[in-house]
């Protein structure tokens, strides 16, 4: 069973397979590029990420101190 739509039932489809001018929405997406500009992303590291790194570093230091104390 084919999943392709029936060309006879597609609105605004011309005999050659194209569509009439004005049949597509003005902001329709393109195959080769973006239809709208991408929003600017933040350039700073989030505070929660910094806190996570600090907590992990403190846990590693505490683990090393305990390991050295047990070996000594």
From TrEMBL:
Entry's transmembrane regions: 48-71
Keywords for the protein's UniProt record, in alphabetical order: Membrane, Transmembrane, Transmembrane helix
Pfam families xref list: DUF6480 (PF20088)
Segments for region (Disordered): 1-42
Composition bias type Basic and acidic residues, residue spans: 1-12
Organism domain of life: Bacteria
Alphabetical list of InterPro entries matching this protein: DUF6480
The protein's name in its UniProt record: Uncharacterized protein
Native species: Nocardia yunnanensis
């Amino acid at each position: 069973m084919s999943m392709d739509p029936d060309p006879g039932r597609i609105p605004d489809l011309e005999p050659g397979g194209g569509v009439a001018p004005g049949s597509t929405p003005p902001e329709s997406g393109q195959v080769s590029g973006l239809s709208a500009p991408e929003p600017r992303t933040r350039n700073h590291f989030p505070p929660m990420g910094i806190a996570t790194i600090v907590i992990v570093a403190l846990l590693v230091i505490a683990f090393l101190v305990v390991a050295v104390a047990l070996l000594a």
